[in-house]
Amino acid sequence: MAASQAPTYPSDREAEIVLRDGSTVHVRPVRPDDMTAIRTFLDDVSDESISFRFFGAVDLDWVTRWAVNVDYADRFALVAETGSPRRVIAHAAYIRLGPTPMPARERGTGQGANGRAEVAFLVADAWQGRGISTILLAQLADVAQQHGIATFEAQVLPANHRMIEVFRLSGFPVELHSTPGSIDIELPTSLSGEALACFEERERQAAVAAVRAFLEPSSVAVIGASRRRDTVGGQILHNLLASEFAGPVYAVNEHATVVQSLPAYHSILDVPTAVELAVVVVSAERVVDAARKCAQAGVRALLVISAGFAETGAEGSRRQRELVNVCRDAGIRIVGPNCLGVINTNADVRLNATFAPHAATPGRVGFMSQSGGLGIAIIEAAAKAGVGLSSFVSVGNQVDLSGNDMLRYWEQDAETDLALLYLESFGDPRKFARIAPRFAQKKPLIAVKSGRSAAGARATSSHTGALLSASDVTVDALFEQAGVMRTDTLGEMLNVAALLSTQPVPRGDRVAIVTNAGGPGIMCADACQAAGVSVPELPQDIRARLA
Please, are residues 97 and 153 in contact by the beta-carbon 8 Å criterion? Predict the structure, then answer.
């Protein structure tokens, strides 16, 4: 590379990262023009954190220049950002210690890595303990391996217990050595099976925390709450009050002072206490502005009921992207838009944040639907079929949280014994293929996947802004591999759910038929064989005993 040629910025290394508490931050490689942002970050970090990072007091101007001095190979640095405008909350870097870098033709192959590099982190005090350092370590390790660096080294002051724990709990096989005045740490940049399992567990915990903000919120505000029960905003507020939600409920209506006997606030910013879940029921054109105010108010979760997004065309898609960007900048998680809402029948929560006209029957079945309108029918049909729901989530366009996140929540939820999915599309089928088998090993998982026909697939793509369609053969293969029980109709799904909610899943496919009449027994045997269920011939001794 010529001395005058600037290194190419690796934009493929930019990513939205989910933290341990379910919030998100933006991670990207540092740029030479980040000096102002880095200096602002350093000025906000405590003297103790600076001392731990640099082994004492240091010239922050020098640190700022050092922090942006990268070539994206031998010197690489990442920053984590949040807020709007974005501000840096963490910096992580490695610097090659050498020997000679591996040949360019071998880089990225993972073979013959022979280099060593020093790695270090600095995280803003208010953001420590949320898993940022561990995530940055994994990101740096992946980059380093591509550039022929096999080993990371770090020096940590003995008093810096938190950073020592970051390395110990990272999942990497870490070696620690005590030396006068420091703890020397060494670890490989390759992800072992243990490290991969560790990061998978962190991802699972983050998903559970994110879903918990929607299904177990400490407080709820309805933005667009109405005095009229025949409106969506009025019905949602009524349902929250009628279900006797365990936390405070706030009505936000810029044109009223009282809504359904509750004092109404002109803006979410006027609500006197922190709000965890905001339910947005305003026109599509006003949703993004509502999201910005929620970001200012410190809201953690946004349930967007409003339609008028990607399912409506180009303008709606643009609006949806803007909504996602606003929430990502603030670390807010989203369910929706274009959805029915969420329900949790747990007696300790009693949450009904939907506009469904009838309440769900409490039970032990988790249900996720991509269709809001169908969700209303599902709630009523489940009650008629004797299937009680532990929780219900309508994900709509699923711009953020999806069925994959719900499965992770229901897997650990003691109130849920099995899960039902109504799917129109797959946002991330590879992740589903990882998550569903683990769930299905513990609890039954039943799904209806619509769009089997060409006409149905076309309708799906225009309904909820489908992210990815798949052939029906592919879906069957995915479900079979993942251990998902597929039913053709919602009626079949509810029948299976009613059965499995009262008895365990059979251990195999061998069936014995007991009957007092030959005809029904023959019909049962034919039905079993047509469905691929085995009806073995009973041994002679058993037949004799029965006779």
Answer: yes
What are the structural domain ranges in the chain?
11-191, 210-500, 508-547
Question: How far is the first Cα of the chain from the last one, in angstroms, to the nearest whole number?
Answer: 89
**Does pLDDT of 102 surpass 60?**
no
Closest CA to 90 of 144, 126, 143, 36: 126
Q: Contact 446/487 with Cβ under 8 angstroms? A: yes
Half-sphere exposure (Cβ direction) of 216: Cα atoms closer than 13 Å: 14
Of 41, 49, 104, 52, the closest CA to residue 77 belongs to 41
- Dist. CA 113–CA 141, nearest whole Å: 12
> Please, which pLDDT band fits residue 112 given cuts at 50, 70 and 90?
very low
Alpha-carbon distances of 219 from 267, 289, 430, 431, 442, rounded to whole Å: 16, 21, 34, 31, 31
* DSSP codes, 164-212: HHHHHTSSS--EEEEETTEEEEEEESS--HHHHHHHHHHHHHHHHHHHH
Topology classification of domain 210-500: Rossmann fold (3.40.50)
Give the confidence band of 33 by pLDDT, cuts at 50, 70, 90: very high
Number of helices followed by number of strands (H, E) in the chain: 17, 22
Query: Cβ neighbours of residue 272 under 8 Å, at least 6 residues apart?
Result: none
DSSP 41: H
pLDDT at 197: 84
Q: Which CATH number fits domain 11-191: 3.40.50.2300, 3.90.1300.10, 3.40.630.30, 3.40.50.920?
A: 3.40.630.30
Q: In the predicted model, is pLDDT for residue 111 greater than 90?
A: no
Residues 361-412: pLDDT tens digits? 999 999 999 988 888 999 999 999 999 999 999 999 999 999 999 999 999 9
Distance in angstroms (rounded) separating the CA atoms of residues 372 and 378:
10
Predicted model pTM:
0.84
Give pLDDT tens digits for 118-170: 999 999 999 999 999 999 999 999 999 999 999 999 999 999 999 999 999 88
Distance from C-alpha of 88 to C-alpha of 80, rounded to nearest angstrom? 6
| Mean pLDDT of the residues in the chain | 90
Q: What is the C-alpha separation between 107 and 345, in angstroms, rounded?
A: 54
273 contact partners, CB below 8 Å, separation of at least 6: 219, 248
CA pseudo-torsion sign 474, 444, 422, 466: negative
